[in-house]
Amino acid sequence: MTNEKRTRRDYDEAFKREAVALVTEQGYEILQAARGLGIGANLISRWRRQFAEKASVTRLNADERQELARLRKEVRQLRMETEILKKASQHLASVPGRFRRGARQSTSIDAAAGIAGEAQAQIQSDN
Q1: Are 34 and 44 in contact (CB under 8 A)?
Q2: Taking the complete model, does pTM exceed 0.90, yes or no?
Q3: Are 109 and 95 in contact (CB under 8 A)?
Q4: Dist. CA 88–CA 116, nearest whole Å
Q5: What pLDDT shows up at residue 74?
Q6: DSSP secondary structure, 5-30, as one string
Q7: Which of 65, 87, 84 lies closest to 76, judged by CA?
Q8: What is the tens place of the pLDDT at every residue in 101-114?
Q9: Domain boundaries, the chain
Q10: What is the signed CA dihedral for 84, 87, 88, 91, rounded to 10 degrees?
Q11: CA distances, 120 to each of 33, 87, 96, 109, 111 (Å)
Q12: 76 near 122, Cβ under 8 Å?
């Protein structure tokens, strides 16, 4: 045995992820990957365990998944309602003489209600 002092090397995150990917995604044995990279097998095992722990912390629990689904549904609903309002306002803006005194307003309102009904039917079919 020599009296050489071993130097500690620091590896960046990308290198660690690539080393772990050799084992998890490409099917290499830990020892094979370690020899190919010139590092100890224990390092790859440790990095693999650390990445698995980080991933488990960032996963959503059941309540969070339910809330996420509810919020996504609500966003879809709000986007659809916004689209309905845009179409209705465009239609009302295109109706000639809508502000004339004594002009019949019911046609514009009926048309807007028709657009709203079509959009509501689309929402129900999406659910």
Answers
A1: yes
A2: no
A3: no
A4: 8
A5: 96
A6: PPPPPP--HHHHHHHHHHHHTT---H
A7: 84
A8: 555 555 556 666 66
A9: 13-58, 62-126
A10: -170
A11: 57, 13, 26, 16, 14
A12: no
Q: Are 94 and 107 in contact (CB under 8 A)?
A: no
Phi, psi values for residue 53, rounded to 5°: -65, -45
Residue type, 127: N
pLDDT, position 101: 54
Residue 121 to residue 80: CA distance in whole angstroms: 11
Three-point CA angle 86, 92, 98, nearest 5°: 160
Output the CA–CA distances (angstroms, integers) from residue 19 to 28, 35, 69, in the order listed. 10, 11, 35
Instruction: Find all residues with CB under 8 Å of 30, minimum gap 6, and list them.
Output: 23, 41, 44, 45, 48
